[in-house]
Amino acid sequence: MVVMMIASIVPTPSVLSVAATNDSSSENAIMEPAYGQVLASWKKSVKDAELYTNEMMPSSFEKATLTGDTHGYAEREVATLAGGDSVTIDVTVPEDGLYTIGFDYYKLNDGLINPELSIAVAGKFPFYESRRIIAPTIWKNKTAKFETNKYGNELIPEQVAVAKWQTGMAEDPNYLEGEPLRYFLKKGRNELTLTNTAGAMLLGNVRVESPIQTPDYADYREQHKDAESPRELLTYEAEKPKTKNNSYTRPVAKKDISVEPYDTKRLLLNTLGGDSWQSSGQSVTYSVKVPESGRYQLSFKVLQEDKPNSPVFRTVKVDGAVPFAELAHYRFDPVAKWENQTLSGKDGKPFEVYLEAGKHDLTLVADASPVAPIILDLKAMMLEVGDLGLSVKKLTGNQPDAARDWKLEEYLPNVTKQFDGWIATLKADQKALAEVYGESAKRSTEGVSLALIMDKLKKLKAEPDKIPTRLSELSEGSSSVTQALGDLQSTLEKQPLLMDRFYVHDGKADLPNARASFLKKFGSKSKEFFASFTQDTYSTTDVDADTIEVWVSRSQQYVELMQNMADSTFTKKTGKKVKFSVMPNEQKLILANSGNQQPDVALGVSVGTPYELAIRGAATDLTQFTDFKEVIRNFSPGAFMPMMVDNKVYALPETQDFYVQFYRKDILNKLKIPVPDTWNDVTGILPELQRNGLSYFVPLSGSAGSKPFMFTAPFIYQFGGDLYAKDGMSAAIDSEESVAGLKFMTDLYSLYSVPLQVPNFYHSFRYGTLPVGISNFETYVKLMSAAPEIANSWDIAVHPGVPQQDGSVSRWATGSGQSAMIFDKSKKQDESWELLKWWMSTKTQSDFATNLQTIYGPEYMWNTANLEAFKELPWPEKHKEVILEQWKYLKEVPKTPGSYMLEREISNVWTDTVFYGANIRAAVDSSSIIVDREIRRKMEEFGYMKDGKVVKPYIVPQMETVEDWMKTDEKK
């Protein structure tokens, strides 16, 4: 209702306000309305169905691909759902009502991707969430016992998927609803269509049934009033669950004497969860065995220090079902120190759960559903704030004159009422938060954020005519209301909980103290302090003479996994020991080399560092190794450009970035705008985008100051130009082709009015203000892991380029990642090369990428530079195809003496042309003089020139050289 009112306030509503309306019947709607809106509408006229279950077997499915390879399923045949397959199911219900849908499934695809499907009723999706129904994979530890590394620290065990049939329900993919989704079915025959949208699975029986009615505790207790309460105290360690519905809810080593087990010198995996168990829907299941039937209490030793003063929620299930309503969305109170929390009612009396003698599954599910109404309010408000910002920009232009007086309410007469509506909604949300959080609501992070957002809105409302010059406070930038709303949503969704152990016990049992005494803590800390002087860690320390020393510019999580893999494979196979250490910063490499304390190998270094070391004689030439040409065949030729000096290669690409187009399918489809393939297409769609208050993102807009090569060079390359003259002694940006590229680069801003500055493309893309644009791996990771609400609404395409006479499109783009190198002073040259080959091999890179995501979560994506390994990554296949196609046009900028000046001057050309209206040719000519002078000066410094004359030729790296090396090896 609020959204409809806002749409009437804004004279020319953006595409986003259309998406937020309740008109689900409109063919022009970008997407179906949200489940919450639809359910509220349904409940006005229909009720939950009662006492109904209908189970349909695969043999009754229409359009199904059936197979007899059932993997042990009870039916003779099951349906295969893969690659977009669909099945149609007819179900007849006795009355109009709300029903749930369940299904049996068996995961077929390998890797981390869960099978997903969509469910349509009568050929239409009743709500947006029905487009993405997840069938979770069940995971377990490969071994029950934790192995240790060379330092005696326990290792996170390898995770393996449980290969068995599972029972799933159609649930909200964001797990914010807390209950299975309800579908409105009319009396009589209804047609359900289940379509595979990700992964691959076997589909067994499908059930349509009335929603489960869970009794409250009073009724539940009455059912078991005659049961005894056996005298027991059973203790279970949280770090060793039976199964999980994800691979990355992991054990955590907590160096705390209050935690069991504990060791002064070693890191023991003694707790579970924290930030790896915070996403709504993540579940952990334990096997519990009780000796006698009876009523038991459940107590959990927990710590919650990630969200100060904020409770978190878990749904507690026994044998797959919630015993009574109070254990759905149960609140764990905020605790900054270890505490035993017994599941209890509001009156403080502990709950008693009836368990038959024998084994049971106890499941805890992270649950953000108690705050879901607030999250939905914030999402709707964020869209509305964005709409107002776009409407103001339409009225005032992209750069309103700060000296001009605006009478905003003459154009947007209800703008003040709009602010009043937002403030009223936030006040209601404050009240709702207090009901959910209790006394800690005002002191919680979320409560403070709500108050700050309200304060910002009140200040903007007080001076509405100044809003055109204060959009950075309303809808743009890192300190805006829009940003604060998005951050608050993310905070509310997180439900972190760290658990040490739990107890199954009777009401008279004395639980062990959750915290150690002061004397024990003092003694343990003293021992830890003295032990720290003798402990060997991942820091850069001296190593044995027979050990290959490797410095890695990454966090300890990465280094620990690399060390474990090297110990179990490389060292085991070759007998050569390796010591990986965390490198604090790359500057230490230069200092260490100067002091003759350099490592043998460095990994994770920026692509420019090997060149800087090589030209000073500190890096090893990798072309000297006999199998060099064979090794490099798995890499992109253009990735070697910044690692070469005089046709010698001083590093291997380790990771590789990519610049592709990201586009919102929902918004572009609504506006009937095609995905651009060339720059001509981009300039062609800009007027339609801008008419709707939208635009196209160019990476240059994300760089507030100097414009780096990675953003400017693609324009020169795509137009057929180059950066350096063939002899490397001068710049080539003054050629006709280079000037044409630079002109188009600046025309995008001065002529076509793409945004001059975009603080965060990810946020703009997520919220729809920039529905299409060019971005990189970082944006891809964020969209894959932190934007579930648009999971099926975006896609990627290759970089736009310049059409060529032969019909092809020149799409050259950079792709700076990280590199791996060997130091020239290393006395273990051959051993280091063997290690480098092992590390960058297809199997090692593929295994490392998979292990990284399996253990630490989907956001830990590894963009390996090994193209064959990249093909095996657990990423969506269509996305990998696009990235691999774009990598055919990967062309990194070569390094030469003085290249830093060329990079700076190209940036100055952009600034002079876009901001000051300079003639592009004049700006380029002026910059060329400055660059050429600096290049000659640096060439003299490194011995390529003397007294202005070339005394030694400088070979500018060329892709053709690397391509010839690869072809030569192929001919052999």
From TrEMBL:
InterPro entries: Bact_solute-bd_prot1, SBP
Name of this chain's protein: ABC transporter substrate-binding protein
